[in-house]
């Protein structure tokens, strides 16, 4: 078996091999190749696995994204995608060989983190990826959707206006508002201009018909949007709600929940700690469902990753990190002072021993280290080590990602 990088000339065979791996057929793109989910592929970041006779039997690719870390740093990451192996060649080591090859390429690019969305949860842990952000949907009965009055004095109830546009009318507005949002939200990924230009991905990036509620501040500057459509059974489905702050989200939610001829509103991709349910006079009017993992994180350079993010407590931890897939192990002294970290090799006794996948899960602050200690995955070597790790790795807010790739 041979693994080689792809070029632009390989796009057709790459897409065909990938779809065959999942027993699907490609959609028909527009004449310029746009309008389909794979139209933003970066073919200089793709891989083809070839059988001995030269036939392609596996694919893997990566996008060039930016990821917002706790503390506000924005760093480049490889967004792994389009991973597939033909059914005739599974369980022959093709996937492992591609993953090992890809991780080496990511490191060669200087990317100390890799991210992906896992089609099946059991697959990617063995390659060092751990679930790091979570998302769900909130279904609200419109008839029971009255908002409670804020009980805290000085609460920002927001100001501005909401305008309804068609998806085709406001591409630039969506792109600008999303970019403003993702730079302030830990766990959020960039959406490169090429994605919007090519209509790649899922709505609202894709050009599918959608109504768009655009919120503007008191000066008329767009600072939020919600894209939605009316489905069967008088259900209004909101693809995503993007807002620069909670007051803007509330204004958009009020607008959507006031829509006529609608029985329920389904908000997709709502973080578990979002305050919307608490804002309703009837707490049970909002039903949470579809809770799932979303962004998986893989650490490729432990010191580089730990010194890049911001921190919100001071302390010291010795982390013994095992990377069985790459055959690496290192012991690191993490010292945090005044929001910044140093991470250096050490021979001190460890406070925590953990797999690199577990480091990926706790890295953005969305998974408490103590949870993984209780699950039997992380070993705490002294009393108080897990509690200190919880305090250190916690971010300023829960990480959240809703970008599909």
From TrEMBL:
One of its GO terms (biological process) is aminoglycoside antibiotic catabolic process. Keywords: Acyltransferase, Transferase. Homohexamer; trimer of dimers. GO terms for molecular function: aminoglycoside N-acetyltransferase activity. It comes from Streptomyces vietnamensis. Gene3D superfamilies: 3.40.630.30, SCP2 sterol-binding domain. The lineage of its organism: Bacteria, Bacillati, Actinomycetota, Actinomycetes, Kitasatosporales. PROSITE patterns: GNAT. This is Acetyltransferase.
